[in-house]
Design goal:
Length: 346
């Protein structure tokens, strides 16, 4: 079994889970000097491999549009190099791809008058005025968010999202050309041990936990009501094992999520509660990032039905675990930040 990005946040948990299941695992990771864009390194890594779990790549919204070349290079070109090597070998094993909920753009919405609708990207003028909720494109009424399914049309709204969708398109083109099974796992907002810290590429849970561990106020953008599905990294590893080790492959795209939407502000308050009464209060700033979407959370039904994957981790317990890790090991933040802008497993 090959895990690309196997020394990264998600990849390392997948490696642990595979080894615990008795699997032999090989890791290709930039931290060991093996870049996914290096065709020779990829060819060597594939020798004797039965299945591939592709986690390598840059993650997160990034700093600004100047990151575009790096994201395309690591995510799209890196995936293309891997797929070319697999096709050249006439590889028939499973390929499991780390995709993301960001391919959806905004989530699924319903207008009370017009039913399901797809809102336009939010305007800076509305966000500046604190009008964060998307509006119906037909009547301008406020919309109700709903869980999004895998059949929703993709609508990537930032560079990272565009590269994740490109990875899917390349992988499914490879599947059609070769007949090899490809499973794309669309991760929702992952949190848990070993998260990258104090970096613009880190997840929001790590940013809040790091701030609290350092005695700083966690700053929540918009009004904190943005709905996401926060899924634990150990659950994400379980989903990958289900896709890799089930008796039959499950080709296609699947949401990997907890199935329970929560507000970003709610998550920040849960982390603060885990730090105790002396922790700094949560600050809701009203700031925004134009590339962010308002609500996106998932239906977990398809992954349960076809992969047999159901999230197991308890949110409150896991938030306390994350808080403890940051509180007990704050020095790790500097080392993580120093390598965070390199290509990271998600």
């Amino acid at each position: 079994m090959l895990v690309t990005g196997g020394a990264g946040f998600v990849g390392s948990h997948i490696v642990d889970a595979l080894r615990a299941a008795g699997q032999d695992v090989r890791v290709l990771d930039v931290r060991a000097g093996a870049d996914i864009r290096d065709a020779d390194a990829v060819e060597r890594a594939l020798d004797g491999v039965d299945h591939v779990c592709h986690q390598a790549g840059m993650v997160g919204l990034g700093v600004d549009f100047l990151d575009v070349a790096a994201y395309v290079s690591h995510n799209a070109i890196g995936t293309a190099v891997l797929l070319r090597a697999l096709a050249r070998r006439r590889f028939r094993g499973r390929l499991v791809l780390a995709s993301s909920m960001v391919v959806y753009g905004e989530g699924h919405y319903r207008c009370a008058t017009h039913g399901p609708v797809r809102p336009q990207p939010r305007r800076a003028a509305d966000l500046d005025a604190g009008r964060f909720e998307p509006r119906c494109p037909r009547c301008a009424a406020e919309l109700a968010p709903e869980a999004i399914g895998e059949d929703a049309p993709p609508d990537p709204r930032n560079v990272y999202a565009a590269t994740k969708l490109h990875q899917e398109h390349l992988a499914f083109a490879y599947a059609r050309e070769t007949g090899a099974p490809v499973t794309a796992l669309r991760y929702h907002n992952i949190y848990g041990p070993r998260m990258p810290r104090d970096t613009p590429y880190a997840g929001v849970a790590a940013i809040f936990a790091g701030a609290l561990a350092a005695g700083r106020t966690p700053r929540v953008f918009e009004d904190g009501g943005q709905l996401r599905d926060f899924v634990h990294v150990r659950d994400v590893a379980r989903a990958n094992l289900a896709a890799l080790l089930a008796p039959e492959p499950a080709p296609g795209a699947y949401n990997v999520c907890s199935g329970t939407p929560r507000g970003v502000g709610e998550m920040a308050h849960a982390l603060r509660a885990a730090h105790g009464d002396e922790a700094p209060p949560v600050e809701v700033t009203g700031e925004y990032r134009l590339g962010d979407v308002r609500h996106v959370f998932a239906s977990a039904a398809l992954a349960a039905d076809e992969l047999g994957f159901v999230a197991q981790e308890d949110f409150a317990i896991a938030m306390a675990e994350l808080a403890d890790e940051h509180r007990m090991n704050p020095a790790r933040e500097t080392a993580s930040a120093q390598r965070a802008t390199a290509t990271l497993g998600p």
